[in-house]
Amino acid sequence: MGFNSRRGIELALFAYHPFVTVMRNRHDDAHRTGNKLNTFVIFGRFETQPDGHLARLSRDVFTDADRAAMPPMMDPAEFADYVATHVAPRYPSGTDGIALYEGTFGVEPSFPLPPAHVHCARCGKGWEIATCHEIGSDTTIEHVSLEPYVGTKLRDALFSIAQKTDASRESAGSLAVRNARWETPTDGTDNPSRDPEQRGWRNADSTDVSISPDYVIATGDSTCLLATKFYHGPCLKELATENAAKALDQTSLDLAAMFSKHGFEDVRVSVVPIPEHLRAWLAEDIGELAAMIPYYRVQTRQGSLGIWVTAYPAIDLHDTGILPKDLSIEMDPADTTTPPCAPFLADETQFLRLWQLMTKRQRNTPAASP
């Protein structure tokens, strides 16, 4: 059991493939036998858990300097001594309330490293042990057709699917198979709250068809799998940047559609830096994060306004000629610091009121001299 000894693990630390193989052998053994395994801290990046999981040390708590100073392997006593000597002094209130690990044990991403044959889902390249602590992941539930495996055992089909290189795939809980022929007829409406068996699912506890690894796949069968895509650190950052840009673009389109639907004409929506009058006010509470809040400038034939999006989107009424009280928002008369704004409700009543107020102001604004 080299995977449970300091020496056995140390021999695998020269490259990613042997390292992740040893870690996954630990994981599989613990889940198969229930054995409690030894705990080690590796590279100042990971901790092997007694139940076979591999926890990642918090990258917010442990700095690059910490990782460089730690030996390749430490036992719990050595790690505790390092934390007490080098990390605890940075937290005057103590480390009891500090999360030393990332993720949730027992739930994805409780094992944060991909099998060696699974490649980065963005660039398609493999992994290096020197940067494996930067690997990120994204897990979704995939509904997978088993049609290509008709006539074979479920265990063989799952093994074949697991060899794909774009993601790591495993059963989501107990083995389950769905087939339309097992579905209970309904009145024509799909009710998600129906019992899974009524929706055509069968598992090991089903009385008519019991699903086991030896179940022979039939025409029409499908299953659900947890699919985890892995990314190099830089690739994940690029993907996050792209997704954020797509989200901003989609929100711009959604806002334009909403304003157009409610009578505004020549609607144009653009993403701009949050204006200084808002940034300075928000910075009092959230500091530099204020500059990162998405802000949309909505320009229409009826006039222009801003919308800033947090958990509770709001309308920026600055320079619109509209006061919060015009939208039934009461503000403290003594408050001279809060910018004029109102919750963005996006309902029929608010859009109608905005259209009326902006149209009225437009009519009352003298035309510019030629």
Give an overview in words:
The chain has 3 domains: 2-113, no CATH class; 136-231, Alpha-Beta Plaits (2-Layer Sandwich); 235-364, no CATH class. 29% of the residues lie in helices and 18% in strands. The chain has 8 helices and 15 strands. It has a 5-stranded antiparallel β-sheet with strand order 4-1-2-3-5. A 5-stranded antiparallel β-sheet has the order 11-12-13-14-15. A 3-stranded antiparallel β-sheet has the order 6-10-7.
Summing up helix and strand content along with how strands pair, one would put the structural category as alpha+beta
- Percent range for helical residues? 25-40%
What's the helix-strand series?
Answer: HHEEEHEHEEHEEEEHEHEEEEH
Query: How large a portion of the residues is in β-strands, by DSSP E?
Result: 15-25%
The biggest beta sheet, please?
5 strands, antiparallel
Mean pLDDT: 88
- Head-to-tail CA distance between termini: 88 Å
How would you write the strand order of the largest sheet?
Answer: 4-1-2-3-5
Q: Stretches where pLDDT falls below 50 for ≥5 residues?
A: 105-109
Overall geometry comes to flat
β-strand number: 15
Number of helices: 8
How many structural domains in the coordinates? 3
Radius of gyration: 28 Å
